[in-house]
Amino acid sequence: MHSMAVFLVLLHFTATLAAGEPATTTLKVTPATLTGSNRSITIQWSNLPSPSPLDYVAVYSPPSSGDLDYLGFLFLNGSASWATGAGSLTLPRLPNLRAPYQFRLFRWPPGERSRNPRLDQDGDPLPDARRRVAVSGEVSFEAAAAARPAQVHLAFADAPDEMRVVFVCGDTGARAVRYGPAGPREEWEDAATEARTYERRHMCGYPANDSVGWRHPGFVFDGVMKGLQPGRRYHYKVGSDSLGWSETYSFISRDIEANETIAFLFGDLGTYVPYNTYFRTPYESLSTVRWILRDLEVLGDKAAFISHIGDISYAKGYAWLWDHFFEQIEPIASRTPYHVCIGNHEYDWPSQPWKPSWAANIYNGKDGGGECGVPYSIKFRMPGK
Ligand SMILES: *[C@@H]1O[C@H](CO)[C@@H](O)[C@H](O)[C@H]1NC(C)=O
Ligand SMILES: *[C@@H]1O[C@H](CO)[C@@H](O)[C@H](O)[C@H]1NC(C)=O
Ligand SMILES: *[C@@H]1O[C@H](CO)[C@@H](O)[C@H](O)[C@H]1NC(C)=O
Ligand SMILES: *[C@@H]1O[C@H](CO)[C@@H](O)[C@H](O)[C@H]1NC(C)=O
């Protein structure tokens, strides 16, 4: 019986090949478990018949997303061997979106018009996710990495001897800020935090309130370190003993008696994502972050602060771009207070009372992508508010 079954399987296999039926296209993404948001991800495919330079793999999170609700996509021709029907692509990192990722491979035959009515920044149609041929397994953050606080950023609070720290978790479990001056850790104290969030119904329009743009933002935790001596280096971490701690960061406390003020003032930063999305994301924003970090290194123990004056992440209703943004600025914002004020790309919408006339002409008054300032107001908390 056993050997007969093997014989039949072999016979079937041979017959299939002889009939010229193509082998199934495979899509494999590794690692399946991420231990942090700085891990590189490899996407491999094989057995793709008659490859086209327009074939693409789309990125999803959560895996329950519809085919058209991709976060973005990569053309397979980014791999030198794409024309053989097999190849691999690498993503340098993916932020923790508090849900697993999944990847799907689609055909786009040469000359075929996309049925997607949405256009990219050049006016070209986005992929229509119609000819799906393979789906990957899920890529998830391991439990410890998923619970670890992310997107840590500092800001001045109202009193000069305070410093606020804000961070994101996927759950509302209690978290603290544990902080103290350099020296024995026994002297560190804990500041309590409170968590807040927002829901899809708080968005005022498309794409922010639509399945294409909406992703749950997680919970934004906020705690204030108090009684800080001026101009001194403090260390801190955020989290809890049961759910895990962030790495330990440090900053120079505010000194209102200081004779010099060192500030980085700029606007319009944006964020970069390592795949094509609904519009171009600026690669240059990575250089800006590197330059600021280089200058902070040179400043050493001198206090400084950041003023990012409007047009912050350019998420414009595509929620996960905010996650990319906060991951991108974390090396700066976890060590230097990072201040913002709102720009038209966080706020402007026809139903909003504040309307710059120039934005009405350029963007139809829809430059906030339906966010109406809500993600901005929850994700940051500025002094004097
Ligand atoms: C990722 O970040 C962690 C600290 O959060 C660090 O220990 C590790 O070396 C980094 N890994 C890579 C591949 O950069
Ligand atoms: C891959 O195809 C896309 C879409 O046609 C094109 O824009 C891009 O230049 C191609 N890239 C390479 C490396 O050939
Ligand atoms: C998004 O908001 C617009 C404007 O209020 C509304 O017409 C539309 O139905 C909303 N979409 C969803 C999916 O709720
Ligand atoms: C600021 O300058 C004044 C006058 O030179 C000096 O007395 C004071 O100590 C300086 N303060 C700080 C914090 O460096």
Write the topology of this structure.
Elements: H1 2-18, E1 26-30, E2 33-34, E3 41-46, E4 56-60, E5 72-75, E6 87-91, E7 102-107, E8 131-135, E9 140-141, H2 143-147, E10 150-156, E11 163-169, E12 176-181, E13 189-196, E14 219-225, E15 233-240, E16 244-245, E17 249-252, E18 263-266, H3 284-299, E19 305-309, H4 320-333, E20 338-341, H5 344-347, H6 357-363, H7 374-379
Parallel strand pairs: 2-9, 18-19, 19-20
Antiparallel strand pairs: 1-3, 3-6, 4-5, 4-7, 7-8, 10-11, 11-14, 12-13, 12-15, 13-14, 15-16, 15-17
The chain binds 2-acetamido-2-deoxy-beta-D-glucopyranose (4 copies).
One 2-acetamido-2-deoxy-beta-D-glucopyranose binds at residues 257-259.
Describe the structure.
- Residues 1-20 form the signal peptide.
- This is Purple acid phosphatase N-terminal domain-containing protein.
- Keywords: Secreted, Signal.
- Residues 149-251 form the Purple acid phosphatase N-terminal domain.
- This protein has 385 residues and is an alpha+beta fold.
- It has helices at 2-18, 143-147, 284-299, 320-333, 344-347, 357-363, 374-379; strands spanning 26-30, 33-34, 41-46, 56-60, 72-75, 87-91, 102-107, 131-135, 140-141, 150-156, 163-169, 176-181, 189-196, 219-225, 233-240, 244-245, 249-252, 263-266, 305-309, 338-341.
- It has 2 domains: 24-143, Sandwich (Immunoglobulin-like), CATH 2.60.40.10; 148-379, Immunoglobulin-like, CATH 2.60.40.
- The strands form 5 sheets. Strands 10, 11, 12, 13, 14, 15, 16 and 17 form an 8-stranded antiparallel sheet that branches. A 4-stranded antiparallel sheet has the order 5-4-7-8, with no helix packed on it. A 3-stranded antiparallel sheet has the order 1-3-6, with no helix packed on it.
- Helix 3 packs parallel to helix 4 (320-333).
- The N and C termini lie far apart (78 Å).
- It binds 2-acetamido-2-deoxy-beta-D-glucopyranose (4 copies).
- Residues 257-259 line the site of one 2-acetamido-2-deoxy-beta-D-glucopyranose (NAG).
